[in-house]
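Question (not urgent): is this output format expected?
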Amino acid sequence: MQTTNTKMGKLVLIRHHESEWNKLGKWTGLTDVHLTLYGFEESEEMGKQIEDICFDCAFASMQVRSIETLASILTICKADPKLPVEHVAALNERDYGDYTGKNKWEMEKILGEEKFNELRRGWDYPVPHGETLKMVYERAVPFFLERVLPILREGKNVLVVSHGNTIRTLIKYIENVSDADVARIEMPFGGILIYDLDADGHIVHKEMRMVASTVNA
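Got this back:
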């Protein structure tokens, strides 16, 4: 646990920027697709937003859009070229199962607004052959507690680049959001969350920095 004379490091959470399938309005999930040119450009803009933070390590998912976003950020924010970077499956996006590759706005018409919103934002809404948000939480939060939090307790700053749903689960834990209220959590493209946490990984202070973005998430 944190000692009384050790200051916690800062945690920075960033969602990958626009991918080729985001641009098409498709549910991507575990499908590996690259950033668009716009996504690369905006990732560099996010790097400019955190030039004032000196990172001690960084984590990203195993998926290329997350890896490309992190790489673009690090070229701009003047990180040490020897900065430890790790890619981990626990930070991968939610598996959309049978919905993978389907246009989300067309699916809204098919499912109806209520079911569509439950599917996108609900806590434990079933996804055929895929993951609920609860299932993502059960892999992402233990990783955060076991790997990231100990580094923060050492007073080191950590950058995490992941995916919308995965970051939503981390926010749920950090901000003590109830299952019922999880639908209100949003992590927009271009959004940068900067947290000061206590020794248990819960919120002490939060700052949101934004890059202007026209992407419809």
